[in-house]
Amino acid sequence: MILVRYAKTIWRHRTLLRALVWRDFCTRYKQAVLGFGWAVIYPIALTLILWFAFEVLQRGPATDRPPLLLYYSGLHPFNLFASCIIYGTISIVANGGLLTKVKVPTETFPLSSVLSGLFDFAFGGVALVGLMLWYHSAVRLSVHSLWAAVAIAGELVLTLAVVQVFAAACVIARDLRYGAPILCQLLLFLVPVIYEVPHDADGVWRLYLLNPLAVYVDTFRRALLDGLPPRWGYFALAWLSSLAALWGSCKLFENARLKFPDVL
Fold first, then answer.
1. How far from the centroid of its chain's Cα atoms is residue 56's Cα?
2. pLDDT of 227-236, one tens digit each?
3. Which of 20, 144, 208, 249 would disulfide-bridge 112, Cβ 3.0–4.6 Å?
4. How far apart are CA 98 and CA 69, in angstroms?
């Protein structure tokens, strides 16, 4: 099975993977004055922009939740997906010199980009915890809050699937490195970041929740802020579609990687 072969390859080269993850993370903030602080500053700045646009300049979403907490709790998991896509799309091209000189398992490059994104996610989580403590009266934690971790795990599976496809496609069509950030900006409005999904989602919301990324962000917010479990049917479907996407991306990547040295 292709997923088993993929897992065995990654495990066999786990030392290389750890080195690549750390290198990718350090490279992002190399020679930056604020260094790792940008992992916190960026989501906070974007949250303040959303707050100013939708709360100050015009009427905000119909919710009693504090706007900053609402926006950041949706933006935090979305940024994990977006940053991994942006950096992961160029992961093969950026390591082209290494691939053409040394025999390296190409699967490690997209995966290292995704895993290095967890560092940003962890640093950004500091601000989220701070907001949850500040607005503690609007937060209801429970045992169901643990589902937030399961939602992030599912999001990582989906993200890796997308990154592998984009990274392979970018080897041939380098324009994708410019298209990936635009796609992420469009997705910002197709995922519940600046609004919430109603508790009783019906009508068009049923179609909306077929988007697995929307389900993961919604589950993350529901679990952490409301202490509610996932929307089981949509959550199970999101996981199944993510696993299916990962299987398909591994198959595509396995076929495409043979051409990488020639193209690069």
1. 28
2. 999 999 999 9
3. 20
4. 43
**Domain boundaries of the chain, sorted by first residue:** 2-263
CA separation for the pair 159, 81 (Å, rounded)? 6
Q: How many CB atoms sit inside 10 A of residue 246's CB? A: 21
DSSP string, 184-208: HHHHTTSSTTSS---SS--THHHHH
**pLDDT tens digits, residue range 167-205?**
988 888 877 778 888 888 888 888 888 888 888 878 888
∠ CA 80-63-155, nearest 5°, is 20
User: Which two three-digit tokens encode residue 160?
Assistant: 């890796």
> CB of 124 within 8 A of CB of 43?
yes
Judged on CB neighbours under 10 Å (0-12, 13-18, 19+), 105 is middle
Phi/psi for 46 (5° steps) reads: -65, -35
Q: pLDDT confidence of 64, banded at 50, 70, 90?
A: confident
3-state secondary structure of 16: helix
What pLDDT is stored for residue 129 in this prediction?
A: 92
The residues, ordered by sequence, that sit 6+ positions from 30 with a Cβ below 8 Å of its Cβ are none
For Cα atoms 131, 134, 137, give the angle at the middle one, nearest 5 degrees. Answer: 110
72 and 65 Cβ atoms separated by less than 8 Å:
no
- Name the pTM for this structure: 0.87
